[in-house]
Design goal:
The chain is an alpha/beta fold. The protein is built from seven helices and 15 strands. It is 21% helix and 29% strand. The strands form three sheets. An eight-stranded mixed sheet has the order 1-2-3-4-5-6-7-8. It has a five-stranded mixed sheet with strand order 9-10-11-12-13, with no helix packed on it. A two-stranded antiparallel sheet has the order 14-15. The two termini are 13 Å apart.
Length: 305
């Protein structure tokens, strides 16, 4: 079982928060720091575009969630292995005034004592704005090293050259913002991109693997060391995905494939007992998965501090 360490980094600064929004653990010899970038307000209908209204309403009630607007957690991770420091996704950034409680990554990296210049690699699960926006913030972008390597699936970069939103169900302004943000990101970081086809080992025991579904190049990150394993699932799993793996998310570019990817991943994790972290699960999101008939259960991991 993973050993969970104090969330206070020895070089933490005076910008620390009363309740630190970070969670540190070990996966064998790999150090992992899960960081909350904040929360995004979204309509619950986005979680289940193919569900009956009454079914969604009942699920929200069962989860003690409001019917009109819910907070969507937004998690990223810092992984240290083999002398490399890997940032997994980067949150929303600060260019979207409609989401004032997200975009906290730069401040929270500093509070955790993580120097952006120490980051050798960035792994992107996909190019939606809430995963890449943090790298476009001037206060963070300007502090990154010139030889930074940015890893993403080749299919993801290709998709955003001419994205197809025909099967999504997003609020009207969102597709254009996603498109322009992805285009800007690819332009800014093109010289540092390291695209891969199916999978790539970024650092010892840190493997990024393309799943597709949510976007054509959506990827997950697999950590393995000393017999311990953890998966950062990106947007393959949402909070409702345990109880209702067949529900379609409005941000899925291929809803049916997304459901298949989610079900396969949850079945695999339920069988292996490996740990799971995901972007939009409640912070710190560290859990295991249990089978429950035709669905699954989110089993939180006890904090061993």
């Amino acid at each position: 079982m993973s050993r969970v360490h104090s969330t206070t980094h020895p070089r933490a600064t005076g910008h620390d928060e009363l309740v630190p929004s970070r969670y540190a653990l070990k996966v064998g010899d790999i150090d992992v720091l899960v960081i909350s970038d904040g929360v995004l307000p979204i309509s619950p209908a986005t979680l289940a575009t193919n569900a009956a209204e009454a079914e969604l309403s009942a699920w929200l009630s069962d989860m003690f969630l409001p019917q009109a607007l819910i907070d969507w957690p937004l998690n990223v991770a810092v992984v240290r292995s083999g002398g490399r420091t890997v940032l997994v996704d980067s949150g929303l950034g600060t260019e979207f005034p409609g989401f004032p409680r997200a975009g906290q990554l730069a401040m929270r990296l500093e509070a955790a004592g993580v120097d952006p210049a120490s980051v050798t690699d960035v792994v992107l699960t996909h190019l939606h704005m809430d995963h890449i926006g943090g790298l476009l913030v001037d206060g963070l972008r300007g502090r990154l090293r010139a030889d930074l390597r940015v890893h993403l699936a080749a299919a993801e970069a290709e998709f955003w050259a001419a994205p197809d939103f025909s099967r999504t169900a997003m609020p009207a302004p969102v597709p254009e913002v996603l498109r322009t943000t992805a285009a800007r990101f690819l332009d800014v970081y093109r010289g540092q991109l390291r695209p891969f086809e199916k999978e790539y080992e970024v650092a010892p025991g840190v493997l990024i693997r393309r799943t597709g579904g949510h976007t054509p190049g959506h990827s997950i990150v697999r950590l393995e060391s000393g017999g311990e394993r953890l998966t950062f699932a990106g947007d393959a799993v949402f909070q409702c995905g345990f109880d209702k793996p067949e529900w379609h998310n409005g941000f899925d570019h291929d809803p049916e494939e997304s459901a298949r990817v989610r079900t396969r991943l949850l079945e695999e994790l339920a069988a292996s007992g490996d740990q799971l972290v995901a972007t939009h699960l409640p912070f710190p999101s560290l859990c295991r998965v249990a089978a429950a008939g035709n669905a699954f259960r989110f089993v939180p991991i006890v904090w061993e501090h």
